[in-house]
Structure formats: structure tokens, C-alpha cells
Amino acid sequence: RVGSLWSARLPAAASGTAIALMAAWMGARWFGREFGVMAGLVTLTTYELYQYSTLAEDDIYLGLVCVACMAMFVRQLWPRADGALAKPRPLAIDLIAGRPMHTVLFFVLLGLTNLAKGPLVGAVPIIGTVGVYLLWTRDTRAMRHFAWLWGWVIFIALTLAWPLWAMKHYPDVVDNWRFDYLGQSATGDPAAAHAWDHPIWYYPAMMPLALAPWTWATIVGLIVAVHASVGGGVREKGSVYQFVACWAIVALLVLSLPARKHHQYLVPIMAPWAILSAIGLVQVGAWLKTRWPRVGAMQLATCVVVGVIIASGAIQIRLAGRDDRTAAELDLVAKVKVLVPPGEPVLINADLGSLGFFRVQYMVRHDQRLLHNLSYLLDPANDRPQWYVLTRSADQDYLARLGEVKLLAAAKVSPKDKTAGHNLALFEVKPKPGLRRVTPPANVSVLQAMGRAPGPWLDPGATAGETRGPAGEE
């Protein structure tokens, strides 16, 4: 049901679970069933994946498509069955000859990564990983297998489909891509385009937190994988260690190249790092077994994982959604339902500059209308004798210019909250008689719609209340 928490959270939770199951499947394919179970549990309990499996954000869906794509690659290389890869043929024929369904799915999923988030955000780390791995192992048969003309045609077609459609209907979407990919702002604030720029070591510095509570095990697993790949180690599993190390390290390095960075962009590459964590746990379990011979290494490591899951679940149940700000906003939402008369719409200011806005908009299960900014109250469509406006408490002065204002309710401000005036509030506004009405412009640019460029304003005086955060994000 629209407005219910389950309808917002369930797709993300299902995606996170699917990522963990695929990590478990790959782990079992490489090292056996018990290891696979552990790899899946570790993946699901890494902080970053766990966090975004509970949120309605698109990074978890990109992660699902990326991991599924890599699972198709793994399906064809391990174990290497006779019919898994194309048989050696003349190169010209090899380029266009048919491929198994898993190869087709690999290219389809590679293309679909561009529809799950921005163009190439998910595809480039995968292409980099596969390319480096095949060159490192000098696996010429696998190289020729994936050098498939029709597969790359599928990828290119899916990659271009969304940008071409978007440019046809919203030509200025190019400005938004320049903002994201090049840090250029044609019509917006140049500083905002660089508000999320971070140094090249940002992701390696964030990874220990993203992997918590398994950071220590990941370090052990990474050492084991690198040693097995370049220094000997477990030779019969060498190519597996090479691939996992490649997937984790190369994808991280590729993500680190652009200046614009967000920690949630790590979600699509959490699976290989979690598998490294599982490798580390098994190694630590094997060492502990030398101390307690009667305890199996895998069983001991599994007990540790299960213990962490129970503790994490207890913490989530006790604390999630109970921080001061969330509790205050949910309390305000409950009051909105009571204070706004039936049949009266709630006019929600979309110019809040906070990701919390989306949560409030979703939770207000009342007839609602979005205002591009508060000046859109002057739209002739808002012709009721009173308005019920949900916006920042600091916007009361501006609303007073439009009519008689009454504060009906406000979210309680935490003593720790230093952003005075940013707390949400519900106002009743009775427009002044003869208030000048202004017809909105026909078009709002993509950058303006995303809060990355100012305006359009129906009343220039509304800009005085502008308190948006960087690039319209929290």
C-alpha cells in the first residue's frame, strides 16, 4: 500500500538478501557449501549493505544488478566445464558465433546497470575487474569468449537507451550529467557541483567502516588472497583468489578515480570484500582450532557470525528510527493527520534541501501537493481560502508576507541539533485579499528540479528564505 513502510522497505530488503544469496552461491561454488553460507551471512551483515538494505535508495538496486552480472561471469568460469566457454574457432567466426545463455545474461545485466543508476556508474567497475582479471591470468580462451560482438552490441544498446530517451524529452538533462560527471554547472552554483568532491583515498578510508564489524577479518582475508595469487599459497584455488582480489581491489580503484564520491557507491562492491572477510574468518578459525582441536574451524567462525547477527538485530530493533530527529518528524506527521481537515490538501515545500523531505512526503498519507518552492503558493491553482503548508519553521516570516499565518505544529528540536529553523513545521495560512497570483513557467530545468540550480521563483522575495544544503542533498 502506498504510504506504508513495508511497501518502501521490502524491495530494498529483498535486494540486499538477493545480493547475500548470490555471494553465498559464489562462495559455495568456490569453496563448498559451509563457506558459502558464511559468505552470505557476512555479506548481509556488513554495515554498508545492511544499512542500504533498510533504506529506499537506488544504490541497493544497482548493487543487485552488478552482483548478478558478476555471478553470470563466475557461472561460466568455475568450475570450467567443457561447454561453458566457446570452443576455439577462427577469430572472425568467434566474434559473431552464438554463446551460452549465461553469457547473454552477463551482457544484458551489464547494460542494465546503466538503468539502475547513472550511466556507466556500475558498468565501468565490472568491465575493469573482468578485464584486469583476464589479462592477469592470460586466459586467452576466456578473453575470446567475452570478446563477443553481439554481447557488446546488447551492452551499448542498453547503455544508450536511457540517455537518448532522456535527451529527447528533457534536453537539459545534459547539464545534470555535466554536473555529476564533470563537476560543471552551466546554470547553477559552481561550488555546488564540487560539494561532494573527495580525495582519491576517500573510498579506501571509508571501507573499514563499510565492512564493520568484519573489518579485521577482511584484512586477514585480503592477505590470504594476495599471497595465494602472487606468492603461491593454495595453488589449486589460485585463480579464485585472483578473481576475488581483483573484483575487490580493481573495482575500488575504478570508483576512486572520479572526484565526486559518496560512501553509498560502495554498495555494489561489498560482496567481494565480504567474501574476503569470510576467507579471513576461516583462517582465524583454523588458527583457533590449533588451540582447541575439538572445535571445527568452520563451525567456530559460523558461531561468531551468528552472534554478530543476533547482536546487530537487537541493536536495530532497539535503536532504528528512534533518533531525536526521526522521532520528532514522525510525531509531526501524526499531528498533520489530525490537524488538517479532511478534503484539505497539505502543501509540502519541496525546496527543503534535505533527504528527510522524502521520508516526510512519503509518510504524510494525506491529500498532498508539492510546491517547487514556497513562491509557488502564488500559483492560481492554489485558490482555497486557507493553505496548510508543511515547510521549515524558519519560513514563517516569508509566509507572513502572503497572508495571516498560524503555527499549528512543529517538530521538536533536539538540543544536539545546531540547524535552528530547519525543523519541519505545519502552518495554516489565510491568503491576503487581492494577493497577486503568478502563473508558473511552463518548464523547470532538470538542475532546478533537483535543487542544483536556483529558481524558478514566482516571487523574487522568496529567495531570502533559501537555506538549501549543498547540491540539494543532506
List the helices and strands and how they pair.
Elements: H1 5-31, H2 33-45, H3 47-52, H4 59-77, H5 91-96, H6 101-116, H7 123-137, H8 140-146, H9 149-169, H10 173-182, H11 190-193, H12 202-210, H13 215-230, H14 238-256, H15 270-291, H16 297-319, H17 324-339, E1 346-349, H18 356-363, E2 368-371, E3 387-392, H19 396-402, E4 403-410, E5 424-431, H20 446-449
Parallel strand pairs: 1-2, 1-3
Antiparallel strand pairs: 3-5, 4-5
Helix pairs in contact: 1-2, 1-4, 1-15, 2-15, 2-16, 4-6, 6-9, 7-14, 13-14, 13-15, 14-15, 15-16
Structural notes for this entry:
The protein is of the alpha/beta class. 57% of the residues lie in helices and 6% in strands. The protein contains 20 helices and 5 strands. It has helices at residues 5-31, 33-45, 47-52, 59-77, 91-96, 101-116, 123-137, 140-146, 149-169, 173-182, 190-193, 202-210, 215-230, 238-256, 270-291, 297-319, 324-339, 356-363, 396-402, 446-449, and strands at residues 346-349, 368-371, 387-392, 403-410, 424-431. The chain has a 5-stranded mixed β-sheet. The longest helix is centred in the first third of the chain and has 27 residues, at 5-31. 35% of the residues are buried. Mean pLDDT is 83; it is low at 233-237 and 464-474.
Task: Give a brief rundown of this model.
With 474 residues, the protein is of the alpha/beta class. The protein has helices spanning 5-31, 33-45, 47-52, 59-77, 91-96, 101-116, 123-137, 140-146, 149-169, 173-182, 190-193, 202-210, 215-230, 238-256, 270-291, 297-319, 324-339, 356-363, 396-402, 446-449; strands spanning 346-349, 368-371, 387-392, 403-410, 424-431. The chain has 20 helices and 5 strands.
